[in-house]
Design a protein that fits this description.
With 195 residues, the chain is α+β, with helices and mostly antiparallel strands. It has one helix spanning 2-34, and strands at 38-41, 49-56, 59-72, 78-90, 103-104, 115-117, 122-131, 134-140, 159-166, 173-180, 189-192. Strands 4, 5, 6, 9, 10 and 11 form a six-stranded antiparallel sheet that branches. Strands 1, 2, 3, 7 and 8 form a five-stranded antiparallel sheet that branches.
Length: 195
């Protein structure tokens, strides 16, 4: 009978320890389970690539935007989301452009500031655009349109674009894309680069 009582006491003690550990780690588990998570998508088609006509000094100029879609696939709001082009490399030589510093990219909504992405929401982030009347350059669609000593108008050729996507409460994502130039302003292509 004494052995039975000791066994019951040991089982009760062990159960109490398990419950205490469960209660102690429950908030941490909940935070991890419910945290937001970003996902980056791209395809060479609408709505990722967009033709548009802009009026500039009474002239209609055709533009072609290339952008990525950022989705929140987590379970809570991703706060202060941003995307940044951190490096431009020549696709043939892999040499980094020295006239470019990291630049924060603009959201399609035109906002020049970070955005919150609720659970299951998504938004497009502009990377660059080309213009029909300028076959020699592409334009990095940076938040700051007049940065000091940064070239936002690199010559049109093949590049590797290294980017980072982040928010206050999520793990950042780094992605690289291969920018394939074309003589036609609206035939440029972007593809995922694993190098």
């Amino acid at each position: 009978m004494a052995e039975s009582a000791e066994w019951i006491t040991a089982a009760a003690t062990m159960s109490a320890v398990i419950v205490a550990l469960f209660v102690a780690f429950l908030p941490s588990f909940r935070r991890r389970y419910n945290k937001p998570k970003l996902k980056v998508d791209f395809k060479n088609e609408e709505p990722f690539c967009r033709n548009a006509i802009l009026i500039n000094d009474a002239a209609q100029i055709k533009h072609y935007w290339v952008r990525v879609r950022i989705s929140n696939v987590g379970r809570s709001v991703a706060r202060n989301c941003r995307g940044k082009l951190i490096r431009i490399r020549d696709a043939n030589t892999m040499e980094e452009r020295k006239d470019f510093d990291p630049a924060i990219l603009r959201w399609v909504t035109g906002q020049g500031k970070p955005i919150d992405l609720p659970y299951k929401d998504r938004e497009y982030l502009n990377i660059l655009f080309t213009r029909q009347n300028d076959p020699l350059h592409l334009v990095i669609d940076a938040e700051d349109k007049e940065p000091r000593a940064i070239n936002l108008f690199p010559e049109r050729k093949d590049y590797i674009l290294d980017m980072i996507f982040y928010a206050d409460n999520v793990e950042s994502i780094t992605e690289s894309f291969y920018f394939k130039n074309s003589k036609d302003y609206n035939k440029i292509e972007l593809s995922e680069y694993k190098g």
